[in-house]
Protein backbone atom coordinates (compact mmCIF):
# COMPACT_ATOMS: atom_id res chain seq x y z
CA UNK A 1 0.00 0.00 0.00
CA UNK A 2 1.36 3.42 -0.93
CA UNK A 3 0.96 6.37 1.43
CA UNK A 4 1.35 9.99 0.44
CA UNK A 5 2.41 12.64 2.89
CA UNK A 6 0.98 16.08 2.35
CA UNK A 7 3.14 18.90 3.61
CA UNK A 8 1.79 22.05 5.24
CA UNK A 9 2.09 24.11 2.03
CA UNK A 10 0.35 21.37 0.04
CA UNK A 11 -2.52 21.32 2.53
CA UNK A 12 -3.09 25.03 1.88
CA UNK A 13 -3.02 24.37 -1.86
CA UNK A 14 -5.54 21.51 -1.57
CA UNK A 15 -7.77 23.61 0.72
CA UNK A 16 -7.60 26.50 -1.75
CA UNK A 17 -8.51 24.25 -4.68
CA UNK A 18 -11.46 22.78 -2.78
CA UNK A 19 -12.66 26.23 -1.74
CA UNK A 20 -12.40 27.45 -5.34
CA UNK A 21 -14.28 24.43 -6.68
CA UNK A 22 -17.01 24.94 -4.08
CA UNK A 23 -17.38 28.58 -5.10
CA UNK A 24 -17.68 27.59 -8.75
CA UNK A 25 -20.40 25.05 -7.98
CA UNK A 26 -22.40 27.24 -5.61
CA UNK A 27 -25.82 28.45 -6.79
CA UNK A 28 -26.48 32.14 -7.28
CA UNK A 29 -25.77 34.78 -9.87
CA UNK A 30 -22.95 33.90 -12.22
CA UNK A 31 -21.04 36.04 -14.65
CA UNK A 32 -22.79 36.23 -17.98
CA UNK A 33 -26.24 35.33 -16.65
CA UNK A 34 -29.46 37.29 -16.35
CA UNK A 35 -29.84 38.78 -12.85
CA UNK A 36 -32.53 36.81 -10.98
CA UNK A 37 -34.75 39.88 -10.55
CA UNK A 38 -34.66 40.53 -14.33
CA UNK A 39 -35.75 37.07 -15.53
CA UNK A 40 -39.05 37.49 -17.37
CA UNK A 41 -40.37 34.98 -19.90
CA UNK A 42 -41.07 36.42 -23.36
CA UNK A 43 -39.90 39.96 -22.50
CA UNK A 44 -38.24 40.27 -25.94
CA UNK A 45 -40.01 38.90 -29.02
CA UNK A 46 -37.48 39.70 -31.74
CA UNK A 47 -34.23 41.44 -32.53
CA UNK A 48 -31.69 41.86 -35.31
CA UNK A 49 -32.62 39.43 -38.08
CA UNK A 50 -29.55 39.45 -40.33
CA UNK A 51 -26.02 38.37 -39.54
CA UNK A 52 -23.46 41.15 -39.71
CA UNK A 53 -19.68 40.94 -39.34
CA UNK A 54 -19.70 37.35 -38.11
CA UNK A 55 -17.82 34.33 -39.42
CA UNK A 56 -19.05 30.86 -38.50
CA UNK A 57 -16.66 27.93 -38.98
CA UNK A 58 -17.63 24.35 -38.19
CA UNK A 59 -14.55 22.87 -36.52
CA UNK A 60 -15.90 19.35 -36.23
CA UNK A 61 -19.12 17.38 -35.98
CA UNK A 62 -20.37 13.90 -35.14
CA UNK A 63 -23.30 12.27 -36.94
CA UNK A 64 -25.42 11.13 -33.98
CA UNK A 65 -27.21 8.50 -36.09
CA UNK A 66 -23.95 6.51 -35.98
CA UNK A 67 -23.61 6.79 -32.19
CA UNK A 68 -25.31 4.89 -29.35
CA UNK A 69 -28.09 7.51 -29.15
CA UNK A 70 -29.09 6.77 -32.80
CA UNK A 71 -30.53 10.24 -33.49
CA UNK A 72 -31.27 10.35 -37.21
CA UNK A 73 -30.49 13.59 -39.09
CA UNK A 74 -28.80 15.02 -36.00
CA UNK A 75 -25.28 16.31 -35.46
CA UNK A 76 -23.28 17.20 -32.40
CA UNK A 77 -21.07 20.00 -33.69
CA UNK A 78 -18.45 22.44 -32.55
CA UNK A 79 -18.06 25.84 -34.20
CA UNK A 80 -15.83 28.88 -33.92
CA UNK A 81 -17.57 32.21 -34.38
CA UNK A 82 -15.71 35.48 -34.72
CA UNK A 83 -17.89 38.55 -34.26
CA UNK A 84 -16.29 41.78 -35.48
CA UNK A 85 -16.90 45.14 -33.73
CA UNK A 86 -20.53 46.09 -34.40
CA UNK A 87 -21.19 42.54 -35.60
CA UNK A 88 -24.43 40.66 -34.96
CA UNK A 89 -25.40 37.03 -34.44
CA UNK A 90 -29.07 37.41 -35.47
CA UNK A 91 -32.25 36.49 -33.61
CA UNK A 92 -32.67 32.72 -33.35
CA UNK A 93 -34.40 30.13 -31.16
CA UNK A 94 -33.05 27.18 -29.24
CA UNK A 95 -36.35 25.31 -29.14
CA UNK A 96 -34.80 22.35 -30.98
CA UNK A 97 -31.10 23.12 -30.66
CA UNK A 98 -29.48 23.15 -27.21
CA UNK A 99 -26.04 24.75 -27.15
CA UNK A 100 -23.19 25.73 -24.87
CA UNK A 101 -21.20 28.84 -25.79
CA UNK A 102 -17.75 29.62 -24.43
CA UNK A 103 -16.43 33.17 -24.79
CA UNK A 104 -12.76 32.72 -25.70
CA UNK A 105 -11.84 36.40 -26.03
CA UNK A 106 -13.48 39.80 -25.99
CA UNK A 107 -16.88 40.87 -24.66
CA UNK A 108 -20.31 40.54 -26.25
CA UNK A 109 -23.90 41.49 -25.34
CA UNK A 110 -26.79 39.03 -25.46
CA UNK A 111 -30.39 40.23 -25.91
CA UNK A 112 -32.51 37.35 -24.54
CA UNK A 113 -36.22 36.66 -24.81
CA UNK A 114 -36.18 35.83 -21.09
CA UNK A 115 -34.23 38.72 -19.60
CA UNK A 116 -35.42 42.32 -19.23
CA UNK A 117 -31.86 43.68 -19.47
CA UNK A 118 -28.99 42.91 -21.87
CA UNK A 119 -26.59 40.23 -20.62
CA UNK A 120 -22.89 41.01 -20.80
CA UNK A 121 -20.56 38.11 -21.54
CA UNK A 122 -16.77 38.35 -21.29
CA UNK A 123 -13.82 36.05 -21.96
CA UNK A 124 -14.03 32.99 -19.73
CA UNK A 125 -17.85 33.03 -19.44
CA UNK A 126 -20.03 30.17 -20.65
CA UNK A 127 -23.66 30.50 -21.72
CA UNK A 128 -26.36 27.79 -21.72
CA UNK A 129 -28.91 27.89 -24.52
CA UNK A 130 -31.90 25.54 -24.47
CA UNK A 131 -35.67 25.14 -24.83
CA UNK A 132 -37.58 28.35 -24.15
CA UNK A 133 -34.78 30.68 -25.27
CA UNK A 134 -34.65 32.94 -28.29
CA UNK A 135 -32.04 35.68 -28.52
CA UNK A 136 -29.49 37.64 -30.53
CA UNK A 137 -25.96 38.83 -29.76
CA UNK A 138 -24.07 42.02 -30.63
CA UNK A 139 -20.43 42.99 -30.28
CA UNK A 140 -20.62 46.52 -28.85
CA UNK A 141 -16.87 46.65 -28.26
CA UNK A 142 -13.97 47.82 -30.42
CA UNK A 143 -12.32 44.41 -30.77
CA UNK A 144 -13.35 41.07 -32.29
CA UNK A 145 -15.01 38.49 -30.05
CA UNK A 146 -14.21 34.78 -30.40
CA UNK A 147 -16.83 32.21 -29.35
CA UNK A 148 -16.79 28.42 -29.32
CA UNK A 149 -20.25 26.92 -29.76
CA UNK A 150 -21.11 23.27 -29.16
CA UNK A 151 -24.64 22.36 -30.13
CA UNK A 152 -26.95 19.57 -31.17
CA UNK A 153 -28.38 20.34 -34.59
CA UNK A 154 -31.29 18.54 -36.23
CA UNK A 155 -30.25 18.72 -39.87
CA UNK A 156 -33.18 19.59 -42.11
CA UNK A 157 -33.15 19.79 -45.89
CA UNK A 158 -34.39 23.39 -45.86
CA UNK A 159 -31.78 24.60 -43.35
CA UNK A 160 -29.42 26.95 -45.12
CA UNK A 161 -27.24 27.88 -42.17
CA UNK A 162 -28.28 28.03 -38.56
CA UNK A 163 -26.55 30.50 -36.25
TrEMBL record:
Coiled coil: none annotated. It comes from Limibacillus halophilus. One of its GO terms (molecular function) is dioxygenase activity. It holds the Pfam family Cupin_2. Keywords: Dioxygenase, Oxidoreductase, Signal. InterPro entries: Cupin_2, RmlC-like_jellyroll, RmlC_Cupin_sf. This is Quercetin dioxygenase-like cupin family protein. Residues 81-149 form the Cupin type-2 domain. It comes from the Bacteria.
Amino acid sequence: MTHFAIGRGSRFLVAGLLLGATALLSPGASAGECPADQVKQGVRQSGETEPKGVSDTVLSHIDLATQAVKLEDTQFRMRRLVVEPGGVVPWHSHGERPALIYIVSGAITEYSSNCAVPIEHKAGDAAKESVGLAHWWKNNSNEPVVLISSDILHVKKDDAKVM
